[in-house]
Each structure stands twice: as C-alpha cells, then as structure tokens.
Amino acid sequence: MKGLNWHDDLSTADEFEELSAYCRTHNIETDIYGEGKFLNDFEMEIAEFLGMDAAVFMPSGTMAQQIALRIWSERLKIKTVALHETSHVEANEKRGYFYLHGLQTIAIGGMNSAILAKHLDEIKEPASTLLIELPMRALGGLLPTWNELLEVLNLARSKKIKVHLDGARIWEASTFYGKSCADICRLFDSVYVSFYKGIGGMTGSMLLGPKDFIEESRIWLRRHGGNLHTMTPYVVSAKLNFEKRINKMHEYSDRAVSLAKALKHIPGLEIKPDPPQVNMFHVFINLPLKQLEQAHEKLMKEDNFRLCTRFAETQIPNWTRTEIAIGDQALSISNEEIVDKYHKLLALAGDQLTVTA
Fold first, then answer.
1. What is the crossing angle of helices 232-245 and 12-26, to 10°?
2. Which CATH superfamily is domain 248-352 in?
3. 3-state secondary structure of 269
C-alpha cells in the first residue's frame, strides 16, 4: 500500500530475495553465537562510525538498554536511573528494568521538554545513570539544543553519573546538530542504536561503549537469551539497509520540514515540533479518535493510501495525535498529494461525526 511512515513496501518474499542476493554478492558466512567475520566486522564498522571503542550486535533495543543500565548500576553500586517519563525503557518495557534487574527510576524533565540541566539538578537522591533519548520519539522528534545537551551532560559528569544514549534514531539527530554521529555519541559513556527504525532493517540493535563494558555486555547478552545460535539474517538486513540509507538522513529531514509547512495551513491541524527537527513530527487533529480511525480505514480502502500507522488520544478533549516519519516511500509522494489525502481524511471524519450525531 502506498503511503507514509516506512521505507520499501517489499513483500516478505522480496525482502528475503534481496538479502539472499546481498549474501551471494558479498560471500557472507554465517555467524555462530556472535562469532563470525561478517558480524564482527560490522560491529567494528559501526563502533568506528559512532566514535566508540567497541560494539556488540543484539536482537533488540530493550535487551541492549537494560543490559547497559544493569552494568552501570552494578559498577557504581547505585540502583537508580534518571530518565524522561516517555523513555521507551519506562513507557514500553513493562518495567523490565525492575523485574529483571532490580533497578528503580526517577522521572525527570517536563512532558513537553527534553531533559535539561535544571531537571537533573532538581533530583536529590543519587543515580547511577542518566538516560537521554535523541531524538525523543514521544515528543515528535524533539531535541535539546547542542548547548543544552552539553550542559546537562557536563552536570551529570560533575555528579559522577554515567550517561547512556538511547540513540534508536541518532542517525536522524545528526542532521539537526550539524554534527557527525560520532561527535554526538562520543559525549556518552554508552550508546544504543537501532537498525530497524530509521534504517529500515528487519530488526536488531547495537550496544556500544568501552571495551571492558562491551565484554561484560556479551555475558549479559547470554544471560538474557539473546546470544542466538546465529543472527546472520538480522545482521545482513541491518548492514544492507544501513548502506542504503545512512547518507539520506538530510533528505528525509528536509522533506519533513517541507511537508510540515504544507500541512500546517490546513484548518484543524497543528504541527509539533514546528518546524520539525528531524525526519519525524506529530500532527494534532481537532477531531475525535474514533471518527479519524473510521475515516482512515475508508481512505485506505478507497485510495489504497495509508497516512499513518495509528492515531492516539491526547489530553485535550476531541484532539487526536498521529506521527509522520519520512522515509523512502514519502520521498516518492508529493506534498500536494499528501495534503489532498489529509483534506479527504478530514472530510470523511466530518461525515462520520455527522452520522454519529
């Protein structure tokens, strides 16, 4: 289906054929329990690209981040982690940090603000780690300014707090700062990156940091059951799609700014952040969730066009939120066509409201 929010609209068969062709072209051998030239070379490549000492490929970011927080907490002998309340670790992982590792969290920062130095300065109890997400997905890709980032990191260091980067979308953040990914990642003690979100791979992540930290992470990977017999399909997909897209991040971000500018003139729509800071942003629509979902279903059936993956309620009555993330599919669709689809969505939702009333 044509639409937004992802890259290639490949069938499962086509995706596996693409991976197979890549394996033949590059004569790739299967890794066994994390050991293999292709896998280990890719770990070294990403570590160098991000300016870190070492890296380990992991099946999921959930695993990678919990392992990082466990290691720093044990080394500092402090069980508390400071993070934003919208952090994936806090909001989406069923408190795995507590049930698996006995960790506690302190939520800092405002609901509509990145974590700033003043937020960190307000906490009184000791913390082993400060987790910072760049960009903040739950806030539409929001980022602190470069100086704000340096200020909070310097304060953390002065308090002897380790700083961990949730860099699931760090590839996109580099365009906002005008810095390389390595310039950003070197500011942190440990870093997690994803290969399926902005990069578009099947799944997979990497955890990066000092060599001794990564050696310990491999032990925890085994304890988590993440040291699979082979991860070759995921590693091949990560490497292939990294090569495809790492140099397109500026193009994605520029297009997000352009599209947001076109959409903001539609009555009943608001854009956050305005302008977008990365390749994603949130669209707030002055209509109820149920009517928008029904209207979107009808739009997809009639036009074979998907505007988003989902809608979500907001704290403001009758306002609904959705996310736009620019990837390869969106680059092939004009702003004018997307604006037209939003006009049709609102008209269909208005019809639903009339019927309901």
1. 90
2. Aspartate Aminotransferase, domain 1 (3.90.1150.10)
3. strand
